[in-house]
Amino acid sequence: MTGHIFGRSTRISPPVAVAGEGCYLIDAGGKRYLDGSGGAAVSCLGHSNQRLRQALHAQLDRLAYAHTGFFTSEPAETLADRLIAKAPEGLERVYLVSGGSEAVEAAIKLARQYFVEIGQSQRHRVIARRQSYHGNTLGALAAGGNEWRRVQFGPLLVETSHIAPCYEYRDRQEGESLEAYGRRVADELETELQRLGPDSVMAFICEPVVGATSGAVPAVPGYLRRIREICDRHGVLLIFDEVMCGMGRTGHLFACDEDRVAPDMLTIAKGLGAGYQPIGALLVSGAIYDAIAQGSGFFQHGHTYMGHPMAAAAANAVLSEIEERDLLAAVRRQGELLDRSLRERLGQHPHVGDIRGRGLFRGVELVEDRGTKRPFDPALRLHARIKALAFDAGLICYPMGGTIDGRLGDHVLLAPPFIISDAEIAELVDKLAGAIDGAI
Ligand code: PLP
């Protein structure tokens, strides 16, 4: 290998992955790594799934690609039907893309076009939350509230309002009930709408369970319902970004199913292709679709690889695996075991401030001081040390640094395959605890 490729870091030469086997990845030297985060919450079925292999072979034998400007395809049509059959109430149409950022980008542009088509072209603003991540393309990056990812691209990003996240470990006040806390932070949306002028706002976007910036932080009970009410009161579209937390990761096919709140648009990706193909989807309410259908009849957007038959075939096989192997029940069961094991091993650890999450989507937040919840100095780059030590020990996990303003501690996100066994959970927790101890 001549080293002409470049990915993220120009300093690190990662090992060469050559094979995958169940919950493990194997490098060129034969070392095995337990995939405790499914990469970045992607590999929900593990790495050598036979149904996926067969489905992709069969699709390749029939049809690899047909441009959506000319054709639809059987796997894409089937996938859309299957997603809508399980989708939260009111979502009736599916727009297929190649990943999470594309799905969010499409949601933002569709929100804008919807309001133009219904004669409310003054609506153009998006409100999102701090400590959120919605993707790396410019529209999605502007919506996200992660300063570290945004900072150098500031001049390229449209102005977006960011309200408080729902992050009870740090922000719930003493004596405040979960419900009261949820209402208080949700009401920041009302305040921000009043400040901007509600008629100028087109959408509010949030992750029902926050992934890549906060480490599996779920909304507290009642929060999303209150957000829904506020959006409805002002005619603002509600977008749930389930790129990371959707597709069964929390033990429900869609994370918002647990909260019993339906959005106007919902994005999924990652687990949809389970790493076997790049695919994302935007699920859209009937009202939004109808406005376009009865208006211009044309969504002014698109990508060459959208609706790709191979990717759709993979996603159909993922859905079949989830359904036929009852993997949502497995996620709930193994998620509880993972949570229990983390609490037993790390619950009393002097530097573990919080253990949280749903299903097989769990986060461990590290603090220098449990009493005050003071995070470690970001200059220590604790998360990077944990990642390196875990990797040396043969564990893939997803540690992240605290935010620039120091309100969020270093944390580790765990999102193992839905097929993870009891023994593999024990190995995961053991290696993670070792890496945390080694790093501090
Ligand atoms: N939205 C959320 C919630 C994510 O976690 C991510 C990726 O981590 C994205 C969007 C972007 O997805 P992708 O990396 O597939 O473009």
TrEMBL record:
UniProt keyword terms in alphabetical order: Aminotransferase, Pyridoxal phosphate, Transferase
Q: Any one cellular component term from GO for this entry?
A: cytosol
- Name the cofactor(s): pyridoxal 5'-phosphate
Q: Which GO terms fall under molecular function for this chain's record?
A: pyridoxal phosphate binding; transaminase activity
Q: Which Pfam families match?
A: Aminotran_3
Q: Look up the coiled coil feature and give its residue ranges.
A: none
List the InterPro entries.
Aminotrans_3 (IPR005814), Aminotrans_3_PPA_site (IPR049704), PyrdxlP-dep_Trfase (IPR015424), PyrdxlP-dep_Trfase_major (IPR015421), PyrdxlP-dep_Trfase_small (IPR015422)
NCBIfam families on file? PRK07483.1
Family per UniProt? Answer: Belongs to the class-III pyridoxal-phosphate-dependent aminotransferase family.
Protein name, per record: Adenosylmethionine-8-amino-7-oxononanoate aminotransferase
Organism this protein belongs to = Paracoccus solventivorans
- Organism ancestry: Bacteria, Pseudomonadati, Pseudomonadota, Alphaproteobacteria, Rhodobacterales
